[in-house]
User: What shape does this take?
Amino acid sequence: MPDRSFAPTRILIYLAVFLIAAAWLAPLVVVVLNSLRTNEEIAQGSMIGWPQHLSWSNYAAAWSGFCVAETCAGIRPYMLNSALVTIPATIFSTLLGAIAGYAVSLWRFRGDNWIYGIVTLGLFLPQQMRLLPWTIVLRDIGLINTLTGLVLIHTIQGLSFTTLFCRNYYVAIPHELIRAARIDGAGFFRIFWRIILPLSGPILIVTVIWQFTHIWNEFLYGVTFTTGQQQPVTAALIALSAAVADIPQHGVQSAAVIIAALPTLLIYLLGGKYFVRGLTAGAVK
Amino acid sequence: MPITTTRRRLLAGSAAALAFPHLARAQGAAKPRLTAISQWSAGSDGAAITALGKKFEEKGGVWQHSPVPGFTTEMMNKLRAQIMAGDPPACSQLKGPEIAAWSKIAPTVNLDALVAAAGYEKVVAPDLAKLHKPGGKWIALPLQIYSTNMLFLSKRAMDKAKADKVPVTWADFNDLAEKMKAGGVASPIANGGTRPDDGQKFEAALAGISPLAYRAAIMNLEKKALEGPEIKAAFAQVRKIADWMDPNVGAQHFSTNLKRFIDGDMGMMIMGGWAQGVLRNAGFKLEDFMIAPGPSDNGKPVFLLNADAFIFWQRKEADLQAGQTLMAQLVMDPAIQTMYSQITGSIPVRTDVDLSGEGWSEGQRTTSKALKEAIASNQAVLSMAHNMAQENGMTAAMIDVITEYVKNKTIKPEQAATRLAEAVEGAR
Assistant: This one.
């Protein structure tokens, strides 16, 4: 094979990729730089600039210092709240989505496509439209202003996406496999557990990344259905940025944003290489 | 004997433990308690509401405030959810015409007796009072006031323009802007790019040209006034302002440009009184800028009111009702309003508070004086840009037209006036 590493088209491709990446990363660079500058330094100068001296105090303030009204505990307790919602909701919605996707793709029954269609309709409903129905549901089952209520919301809302992902992945699995297993006497759940789940690695990683990121970043339900100390991290971030009579706390904000983004970033780093692979696995048949 | 002592202590301890909840319950029945929601969480807003909570506790109350971080929409979502769940907060932050709108959704508390006892009504600007008593009864109490049309002048830009007089009318203002431009000030107008920014410029222009037309067109939505010459004149003034602004602001907060404003690279800023708190917190010196009431063509100050308030929701619980009474008394108390405004940089709602003493800034004194004069000449009007004149939907429709006009310089003032009238019709 000829060595193409210095071919003009290669260089062009790398140049384009480099430029796009630079444009894409520029905001992150600004945020990282601002997280090391004091508020006064940013206010007296410009939003964009090198730190005059590294000030790590923003991170301390963001983690455990800044006040949300009467509570001065930084972002820490809110990170915990978000984790308490995100982790169970991600697990439940992924598992249920896998079972649902498995049922509609490999266990054909009357109306399966209809059911699949109705479940995925959830993708097209704007969040705001579902806010009042959820209020009524949570009120009636007594889960308003609880983290359990949020777990329920995100588990159910997540089903649309997780079912879609898993169903598209499972349709590529040969039906003969299922038939053979049934002849051997395996039932619905045994086939799922013994045959389907072991094949599902890539798609489960995709749905976990997807669900985790979405639930972690969610704000509207988080702020509406919790109160005070139970609020998720997104609410704490907004609390930092929505003061009227104050100079925006760009330094602390930047540090808090970086800290709050770490869990999702970590999930991507761990599972990122499967992400595209899993997404395209269902599409290319 | 050590063992006996321990046992005795234990016994005493358990007796106390048994008695204590009973005791606490007995006290709890009389103890005022307040559940409150507000969007005040960060910075001086958060500090002020926290200080208010402390005062509430000092008076023997139990303060249960849940901040709803974000903007008005988030807080309204939360309020709606709480009302639907049958658990409205004893009191919540709400302002402007939304008070009337929301009072139709759930029963509110009639505060007439408390307001009368405090003699509050005669010290509140009449237009403001009206907002808090839809249907003739006080159901909400204003807490603090900001003016949305204060004029901030950069000392260095004034030096560049060789000017020392504060502009009074729009003609003076335009004259000064021209001089600044000629003197080398890159953008005579300092501005941000958020939605209320453009709205504030328009409302300052119209109310400064004619407070009467502002009242008729924007507050009362009279068709004739909306098509009147003052609207066109206001748009023409906004175009001038837009031409003097730095267009490269995107959706940035106005504070992004404060450095350029102080350096004299930008000259004048039409902004709410809160900007002085922002300038102070950003570490700029008071002698680097001046504050004056926004331009007014009849020479008397025009005051565009923005006021924060609490609405009180009906609760059956005796402790919450006691809490509401205590909260209402605190909110109307001049000492509490003084404490609150000194933290946030606003001015008290009560026009009888003396601002000459310690703890007030020159800007606050100017603002307070402007309010008194504006009330005397019936020129204290309600801000459109900050949702005081109309409900959210109507305000949004108006600001859409104004923002497009500010950004798109091919639109003529006449066209903009027509569009505004149409937008109002559409949103009615």
The two ends of chain B are 84 Å apart (CA to CA). Chain B touches chain A through 46 residues (CB under 8 Å).
